[in-house]
Design brief:
Largest sheet of chain B: 2 strands, antiparallel
Oligomer: heterodimer
Distance between the termini of chain A: 84 Å
Number of helices of chain A: 15
Strand order of the largest sheet of chain B: 1-2
Shape of chain B: flat
Strand content of chain A: 15-25%
Helix content of chain B: over 70%
Radius of gyration of chain A: 27 Å
Strand content of chain B: under 5%
Helix content of chain A: 25-40%
Distance between the termini of chain B: 10 Å
Structural class of chain B: mainly alpha
Chain lengths: 540, 334
């Protein structure tokens, strides 16, 4: 056995270490005990989407969705279009540029207080002071409370996307709680989860991807038919659905057949996610729109869909809006795969083809670097074959294509600093109000990294500015048709294909979920519309 | 043997040797930890992209991009010395992803990961030793040949491959594990969900232990003391699990200490396969979204535990073979 000094050595050695380590565990995971009666479990492969309050949820569809079960907005979107939520009456005064909302008298906060016009006024002011990433309230100049439950929004300018993107998206905050909160970002105190929605916050553990909401027994829009709503992380939705461990989940297209055989109900969204080539317009040769057109004509979108997605995708339109979008315009200039016209266009631009090699005016071979992001629908990573097929198609024309697979964050940074030529990337957010076109084309505050940053066509810029202030939807459609035809002429970015979302649910254990037409809120293509859990027959 | 004075009148040579060794140990651990902390700063600071860009700019839904208020909240740089100070004062910063202090998050998750790693490590150690001893004493027996072949083959297979295989094999019959879907954590739910991840990690690490234990036992078997034990009429079981086990332990334990780092990193990957809510899942997400404080926190904690396990293995060897160190100490001093 060791001697005394040996033990001493051991003791001191460990002591010094444990002094370091003892501070590492301020708390341990705690178990939660709740009795579950009738529960609906929603599976999710990613799990963590932040905490369900407006300032702590991730600025992504699933993050907003979790929050939306707790917080109601003035209006909401279902398959019937815009429906009433906290507002029981609303109207727009075109001449005065103002909206009138009458708040539902029965609406209560989860802590029992009434929802009042003051709360609505406070919400707008709070979002102006502490911007909320999901809703842009800059178009609202002031809010005036005109009665106990009546409120008027004075607009700075007419705003076409106001109803879907603000009134039907903006979670109303309880004034008596948030007025005491100085720094709202990532604030996760328990009272910040108090809203007026159909569910009451019970617990959440984003590390486990676990969210538990309980039924709101005093919901003003009708009876909530789900007692316990649970979001849970699962490694493979197919297995968990088949084992009845979860009741509904977004699924991959290849799971459809087996789930159908097992009597699951399969639903799908409209085209909701777009893969595209993002172009750097400041660099030759892509600064020339004829070159872009010729380049786009070399790409066989149908082949990519066939080979890389086994048909579970749809070739994209150069005008960006997918066919099912309410503002889509029939366009004859589809720029389908046509290598002959492409060659002719390239020759007109001074390029030559020798032995299958494409040369420029200085007899140098055309070499194009494409940064490849492996992002796929829902922000997930999926190593696809898109890039290899694209490379093969372009090299057939005689260009040399270098593919560079990079991590999404690295691509985002390079795009942000405009250090790229072409990027193969993708994004969602193409089903809602077409205000998203401005964010995807122009280069201003609020543009995402997926923006083409194309500001060389003044008439396009003007039309884009016009479409978001045009309140007449027929006139707006005409403007959007013009925009779409300019887009397919100028090609600020090159749309490749659209993906749809698929989901499966158990008919017996879960309410009838549905994909909302045009997506709920600002256009979220998920099947988890909270109104699927509310039985409001008696109210209508 | 002559015992020399340490040169300091108030210290006998043993205490002197002990203090010297202790000082050396503490200094070397201090240097290693300092290097680790610096490394965690440099590597993470040079990662392209940041949380704000990943979370708020790369979104086509919402208008949050370019919003100065949100940006200023999520973009903070403290600099190297600020970082050093924060680490030493146990102010390890705040995780944007989980809206909590990093140490609190790690404190919640670490017990689960440790349970996985320690039980898998222990299992692989026990099974490796058992198999090693049993096959070594049966030299040239078919069982030995089969297990040597099998273990050599499995030795090269990483944890995540084993995990994936298990997932495929068991997903048709046994309910696949995912701790997240359990509403309450009791001993049985945790144990049930942990079987596959633990076995995946253990299976991948058994061959390493087995091969070393077997080699060591084969060399020890010819030691005169074994012959004496046999001559004394001790039972086979007693000889195998008292004498041979103790003689085989030091090399196996040193390897275990070294391997522990690999067991830990292997477990981090396996966690992702089974959606096990531990450090690995957290780490993966933190890197993806550039939650710098969390990346640094998990990096440091894992590194500290690897050092700790090395120390532990080292100490167990010293306890079993005190004379190893006694000799070395005397040589150091004399």
């Amino acid at each position: 056995m060791p001697t005394i000094s040996r033990w001493g050595e051991i003791a001191v050695k460990y002591l010094s270490f444990f002094i370091l380590l003892i501070f590492l565990f301020p708390s341990f995971a705690c178990a939660e005990n709740s009795t579950f009666y009738d529960k609906v479990v929603i599976g999710d492969t990613k799990g963590n989407w932040g905490y369900p309050n407006p300032y702590a949820h991730y600025p992504r569809g699933p993050g907003y969705t979790r929050m939306s079960f707790l917080f109601d907005s003035l209006l909401w979107k279902t398959n019937d279009g815009i429906v009433l939520a906290l507002a029981e009456k609303w109207s727009y005064d075109k001449r005065g540029k103002k909206y009138y909302f009458k708040i539902n008298d029965n609406a209560l906060w989860h802590d029992g207080r009434n929802v009042t016009a003051e709360d609505v006024k406070f919400t707008i002011e709070y979002y102006k002071k502490h911007p909320y990433g999901w809703v842009d309230v800059t178009d609202v100049k002031t809010v005036e409370v005109i009665g106990e439950n009546e409120v008027v929004f004075h607009m700075a300018r007419p705003s076409a996307p106001f109803i879907p993107n603000v009134a039907a998206s903006m979670p109303i905050l309880p004034k008596h709680i948030w007025e005491h909160i100085e720094n709202p970002y990532n604030n996760i105190q328990k009272e910040t989860f108090i809203g007026s929605g159909p569910f009451v916050f019970e617990s959440s553990d984003p590390v486990r991807g676990f969210y538990h909401f309980k039924r709101n027994r005093n919901y003003y829009l009708g009876e909530v038919i789900v007692d316990n709503l649970i979001f849970s992380k699962v490694s493979n939705p197919l297995i968990f659905l088949l084992k009845n461990r979860i009741d509904v989940s977004v699924i991959q297209p290849e799971m459809i057949d087996i789930l159908k055989k097992n009597n699951f109900k399969i639903i799908n969204s409209q085209s909701s996610w777009m893969k595209k080539l993002l172009i750097n317009h400041n660099e030759p040769p892509f600064d020339n729109k004829l070159f872009r057109k010729a380049f786009y004509l070399c790409i066989n979108r149908e082949e990519i869909v066939r080979q890389a997605h086994r048909g579970f995708a749809e070739p994209a339109n150069p005008g960006m809006l997918p066919k099912q979008h309410m503002y889509y315009c029939q366009n004859n200039n589809m720029l389908n795969y046509n290598p002959d016209i492409a060659k002719k266009l390239f020759s007109e631009l001074g390029y030559r083809f020798e032995n299958g090699v494409m040369l420029d005016g200085d007899n140098k071979r055309i070499v194009i670097d494409i940064l490849v992001s492996d992002i796929t629908a829902g922000g997930e990573i999926g190593i696809g074959r898109d890039a290899e097929i694209l490379k093969k198609q372009l090299e057939k024309m005689g260009m040399k294509i270098n593919l560079l697979h990079l991590d999404q964050s690295i691509i985002d940074e390079r795009v942000k600093n405009r250090k790229f030529t072409v990027v193969l990337t993708g994004h969602g957010g193409i089903v809602g109000d077409p205000a998203f076109l401005n964010r995807l084309i122009l280069c201003e505050n609020g543009s995402s990294v997926n923006s083409a940053c194309y500001e060389k066509n003044d008439s396009l810029i003007e039309l884009l500015r016009e479409q978001i202030v045009e309140m007449d939807s027929n006139k707006r459609k005409k403007i959007l048709c013009q925009i779409q035809s300019i887009l397919s002429e100028d090609l600020p970015s090159m749309p490749l294909y659209y993906l749809s979302g698929y989901a499966a649910y158990n008919n017996e254990n879960s309410p009838a979920w549905y994909y909302t037409k045009g997506g709920y809120s600002i256009g979220i293509p998920l099947p988890f519309n909270k109104m699927a859990c509310v039985n409001n027959d008696d109210k209508e | 043997m002559m015992i020399r004075n340490s040169g300091l009148p108030f210290l006998d040579f043993k205490t002197y040797g002990f203090l010297k060794r202790l000082l050396f140990l503490l200094t070397s651990y201090f240097v290693v930890i300092f290097v680790l902390i610096s490394l965690s700063y440099v590597v993470v600071a040079n990662l392209p992209g940041d949380y704000y860009i990943s979370m708020y700019e790369n979104t086509s839904t919402g208008f949050s991009a370019g919003n100065a208020d949100i940006q200023s909240f999520f973009q903070k740089e403290i600099g190297y010395f600020g970082y050093l100070y924060d680490i030493v004062t146990f102010n390890w910063g705040y995780s944007f992803l989980y809206a909590k202090p990093v140490l609190q998050i790690i404190g919640e998750v670490l017990p689960r990961s440790l349970l996985l790693v320690v039980s898998a490590g222990f299992l692989s150690l026990v099974f490796g030793l058992f198999l090693g001893i049993e096959t070594a004493v049966r030299k040239s027996h078919p069982i030995e040949k089969i297990s040597v072949f099998f273990n050599s083959a499995v030795d090269g297979v990483p944890e995540f491959v084993v995990g994936l295989l298990f997932l495929i094999i068991f997903s048709t019959g046994y309910t696949p594990p995912s701790l997240s879907v359990a509403e309450d954590y009791t001993f049985f739910t945790i144990a049930g969900y942990m079987i596959l991840p633990v076995v995946s990690v253990a299976v991948a690490n058994i061959p390493g232990m087995f091969l070393i234990a077997r080699n060591s036992v084969i060399t020890d078997m010819v030691h005169p003391c074994i012959l004496t034990a046999k001559g004394k009429g001790l039972t086979d079981f007693y000889i195998k699990y008292k004498h041979l086990l103790i003689m085989a332990l030091p090399p196996v334990l040193s390897r275990f200490g070294i391997r522990f780092g690999f067991i830990l990193t292997g477990a981090l990957v396996v966690e992702n396969i089974f959606s096990f809510p531990g450090l690995g899942t957290l780490f993966f997400e933190a890197i993806q979204m550039r939650d710098v404080n969390l990346i640094r926190g998990i990096f440091l904690v894992s590194a500290l535990f690897i050092i700790l396990m090395n120390m532990l293995a080292d100490t167990v060897i010293h306890i079993i073979y005190p004379f190893y160190n006694e000799k070395r100490d005397i040589n150091d001093v004399l």
